[in-house]
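name: query_chain
kind: protein
chains: 1
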Amino acid sequence: MAYVVERKSLSLSERLYLPQIVAGMKVTLKHLFKPNVTLEYPDVRPAIPPGYRGVPTLVKDPNGREKCVSCQLCEFVCPPKAIRITPGEVPADQPQRAHVEKGPQAFDIDMLRCIYCGLCQEVCPEEAIFLQNTFSMAGYTRAEMVNDKAKLYELGGTLPDQHFKWDKKKAAEEHGNAHH
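structure:
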């Protein structure tokens, strides 16, 4: 047996939707004079909180030398295996790096695999990897999202080195103390 529900008829104001339109205009006017809570990204960038972990990059020392000695600790500690390093010899035309045994021939970070955990930065004994504040990367292909050595140095640049480890080691070697 079918049950029939009878609707009561709408009043004149309900038929004209006036209370709903006035309520909507009230909300619009209330938000019109409030300060904006959104940003016009990418023209306006949000403030990055301290301790933010962005894109991993390679950095050079203040003398323009590669700090990476291709020890591959970052490659071994990377949980998603996003880092690939091919160790190579240090070129003979770089006497300022003569005390270094190896350097990276190829250094790739797959940004589609990277989880921004920061373990590569923590484990690096030469402080050659730094996570920058860059948070937006774009590319049309998967190959564009793999940062090679040149791009990693371009993103990282040169950071001030407070330890001057290589300079101290070189000075110690010149003074006959090779184990400094």
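note: The mean pLDDT is 86.
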